[in-house]
Amino acid sequence: MSRATAYAHTNIALVKYWGKRDDGGRALNLPAVGSLSLTLDRFGTETTVELAPEGRQDVLVLDGVERPGAEVARVSAFLDLVRQQAGRQLYARVTSRNDVPTAAGLASSASAFCALAAAATAAFGLRVEGGRLSILARRGSGSAARSVYGGFVLLQRGSRDDGEDCFAEPIASSLDARLVVVRCGSGPKDVGSTSGMGHSQRTSPYFPAWVETHARDLSDGHAAVVAGDLPRLGEVMEHSTLKMHATTFSARPPFFYWTPTTLAALQEVKALRGRGTGAWATMDAGPHVKVLCAPADANAVAAALGTVPGVLGVDIAAPGPGARVLETHA
Ligand code: PMV
Fold first, then answer.
1. pLDDT tens-place string over residues 194-210
2. Ligand 1 pocket, residue 13 CB under 6 Å
């Protein structure tokens, strides 16, 4: 194949990944902790990779705009991995369309690198699926490893130095849930996830406690998904995100992904619970709040969050499918 198009949905971590394992500079992108996520039916990335036999460099066109060298560099470094696996040194034209506000903390890197992994391997004629696709996507972005699968997904931390045991797996569960995505700010984020987690890891005295207490959260979250226990999952989810953000507040210098609207939304989630509605919040490397709730409560939760001053918009997302190759051309 010389051209392939793939689509990957974004996913939101319910038990977070934050921090990296030392890989001796091999760019394996190994997480310090595992994670548990929900792949959404909304928000995602469609990417076409076309091999360019005459090309002299990779080209990236994102949302209709050709991107400069710095932005292409991360994509090129990723394509190098695929070129290595294929044993072919062809450059590529990558055309990508995000249904997610790029770099605003709505996890665009998850869907972006997962779609790129699926499209690039297909364009090079490689059959890379399941755990192998997850391992490859992880090299682009930790969260991308999880978008390979739909629904609830577990990403093991793994212990091997080569990262071969660090891949995502779907969790069999009958649990249905909704994630209400509450937009609490606009524009690109100030601190990207990679630099944010690195700075937390290097300077926050809470980081070791984050790692030490993480395995328990992951097994609790996993057990809650398997048992279909939404309140238990929601409670551990909030605990995980607040611990993650505590490592940013306690970094030196400190940094905050939250805006006043983030905090107001969190207070509304607590108020909803006080009124008897099961709703729990999580936040990533950006200001937005995502609220986990039962399908029957989603409209009420969205309506309540939509009235919080400063909230820019509210979307209800359901569990969505894993990444897929849409078309290939020889
Ligand atoms: O995949 P990255 O490098 O963009 O990092 C993701 C970090 C968080 O979104 C904050 C947590 C997670 O597990 O997705």
1. 999 999 999 999 999 99
2. yes
